[in-house]
Amino acid sequence: MAHAILHPSIVSLVSLAASIAANHPGKGLCQLDKLKQFGVSDEQIDLVIDIARHIRDEAGQKIDAQFDAIYDEKISDETDASAPAATSSCCSSTGTGKACC
Fold this sequence. Notes:
101 residues; mainly alpha; 3 helices; 59% helix
């Protein structure tokens, strides 16, 4: 099976977008100089940044909506006298055994 090879400018664009979308601490900033060296235009970089931010923000909104729905359900259950009280925590320990909550 032949392996597809991507042009380094495409790899840098993907890396920039993934870093932004994932909220990576480096933010993909190291890719900007590489992209300029490859001749990628500001307009193309701006488009990739816009798409990555949209994906990141949309994912955050969906996660927040899921959390809110579960939270609202738990609040509703707690106010319902017939609902059993929660007896266990959803918190688990880190890999080194430290509690996260």
